[in-house]
Structure formats: structure tokens, C-alpha cells
Amino acid sequence: MKQGRSLKEAKAERAAKKRRARKRRRAIVLIAEIITLMILLGIGYVMSKYGKMQLNIFGDDDVQMNAGTKQEGYTTIALFGGDSREGQLEAGTHADTMLIASVDNETKEIKLISVYRDLLTMQEDGEIKKANSAYFSGGPQATINMLNKNFDLDIQDYVTVDFQAMADVVDLLGGIEIDVTEAEATEMNNYIFESAQIVGKKAQRIRAGAQTLDGVSALTYVRIRKNVGGDYGRTERQRLVIQKLIEQVKNTDLSTINDILDQVFSRISTSFTLGEIVKLASGVLQYELKGSSGFAFEYMDGYVEGVGSAVIPLGVVENVQELHAFLYPKNEYEPSEVVKEIGTKIENLSGYSRNDYKEEE
Predict the structure, then answer these.
(1) What is the DSSP letter of 119?
(2) Which residues contact 311 (CB under 8 A, 6 or more apart)?
(3) What is the rounded distance in angstroms from the CA atom of residue 39 to the CA atom of residue 58?
(4) What is the CB neighbour count within 10 angstroms for residue 337?
């Protein structure tokens, strides 16, 4: 009898184990199905928004780079702010903002560089002109090629936004906290009603001090130059606003994100494919801005024959070396012959090198 009961108990225990195993397998399958469904819904969601953007997908030969400039472990993106009032973001638009963003693919750390729009650079046709000439004459593709050529970069993609998009994003996020100086407040009040008219929003006069800037006031804050540091001060304000927006987005609910995508995507131009956007978006909560600066690092203001008032880089090669050390700290860098030739041409045209200028000081 005892043996009979033990056999039954053993059979019952084995049966119970099988039932528990089947339940676990069903649970695992169910969880996997839910995760898969969420991913598919997420991709479908992104796909539904992706088509709203102004897409400008580059062909294999559209983007040009100097030989040997691929940066392993990093993704480099060009970010442009156009002055379009009508959502036109291609050639014929002035790029008030030119930013280079390097993303460490492992740590998700972001470094930002503002390229001064009046910086002397060699354009695609070989002429030395101000950096922002590239966007007006050839749009984002020509500007990427100019940046890659002059600075030994491997930018493959870009994002351009216009005035309206920026103002809308700031408003939908509930504003951004900025400490406005007396000089900045004075200058902002000279232009804030013009900004309001451009984006079709209401405006109020600005006071000095810490405050929440809405879309119109934030737009005005990043546009002012006169009496508040010129283009150098403006690029600092632009990078500060981007930093504030990144902080805000991380703490924003999905409903607000949806509103932003619906309202803003039509005013964005990009070369990113859907797959690339999904890949970048997957790490959105991990991204962290780890440093920003303006470029060139060493420069002077001057008048250049055939160009006019410009920002003259003092030592193109040295500046580019410092740029790579900042954007790609894990990688070694040796300037290309192309960059050296550009440096020589700019020095001959401007009459200034880094050593000559330091001797004058």
C-alpha cells in the first residue's frame, strides 16, 4: 500500500511540475507577445508621425567626407535652425543656427558645438566664404559637405527646424527656466513683438532675472545678438536653450510628446530614415548633454577682401585638432591633407595665423 501511494504521489508531483512548467512557458510567451506588440505599436506610432516631416533622404554619393575620417563609436549629426517663416527649410533659407552633435554610442553622452555663422570656411566650389553661405546656396546637403570637408568630420545626417517649431515646442513643454540679464531683457524687448508676429503668438515684455520663458520669449532669447555678445553670445544662449529642452523632455508625459510630434513634425526637415530614428529614439532617456562650446576655439573678428566682416580662425589645423579632442575624446586624430590645405588658403587670404596673432599680442 505504501508503495502504491508513493507511486501515485510521484506521478501527481510530476504532473504538477509539468502543469507549472506549461504555465511558466505560457507566461513567458505571453510576456514576449506583449513586448513584441508594444514594439510593433511603437514602430507603427513612429511611422504614423514620420511621414509628417519634410524628408530629404541622401543617396550613397550625396554626402562627402575626407579620407580616413570615420569616427568609430560615435554618431555625428548636424542640427540647423532656419530663419524660414513659411516652413521652407532647404536652399534659399539662412541657417541662423549650425550645431554639430556627437553622440557616444555606448554612454549616450552628447557633445554640442556651435559653428559661428560668419566663420571663414571653404565651400564646395573651393571658394572661401562665411560658413552660413553653404546652407543658403545648397541647403543641408551642401552644408554637411562643407562641415565634413573643413573639419574632417563624418556627418551623415541632419535635422533642421524653423522658428515656429521651436516656439511651439517650448510652449508645449510649459516653458523653460532662464536667468535673463538686464542687457538681454532690454534687447529682447526690442524684438519680442517681431518674434510674436513671425510665429503668430502673443508676447509680453521681458524683465531681468530668473523666469519661465514661453515660446515667443525663448525664440527671441536665442535670436538676439546686438549688445549681448554678438554671434558668440547668441550661440551660448542657443546651447543653453537646447540643454533646458533636453531636461524638460525627459520628464514629459506621452500625451505631451504626442502633441509635440503632431504640431512640430511638419516643420522639421531631416535625412534620417525611419529605422535610424527608431534606433536613436530607443535611448532617449539615457541621453545626457556633457559639454558644449563654440567653434572656432581661437579666432578673431576681421575684414577679409571678397568676404567682408568675418570670424577668422587662428590656426585652422590647431582648431580642428581641438574640435576632435572635444567631440571624440576616445579616438586619436591626425589632420588630413585637405584640412591642412584649407588652413593654408585661409591664412593666406586673411593674413593671420595663430602664431602671428600671438606675436602681435
Answers:
(1) B
(2) 116, 118, 119, 120, 231, 296, 299, 300, 301
(3) 27
(4) 9
3-state secondary structure 88-100: CCCCCCCEEEEEE
- pTM for the full predicted model: 0.80
Q: Which CATH superfamily is domain 174-251 in?
A: LCP protein (3.40.630.190)
pLDDT along the chain (361 residues), means of 10: 49 56 54 56 65 85 91 92 64 76 92 93 94 90 96 94 87 94 96 92 95 95 89 88 84 80 83 82 76 93 92 96 96 96 95 70 52
CATH no. for 51-162+270-361: 3.30.420.590
Could you tell me where the DSSP H helices lie in the chain? 2-50, 133-151, 163-172, 182-199, 215-223, 230-250, 254-264, 274-281, 316-327, 337-350, 354-360
Domain ranges of the chain: 51-162+270-361, 174-251
The rounded distance, in Å, linking the Cα atoms of 205 and 284 is 35
- Among positive and negative, which fits the CA dihedral 320, 298, 314, 81? positive
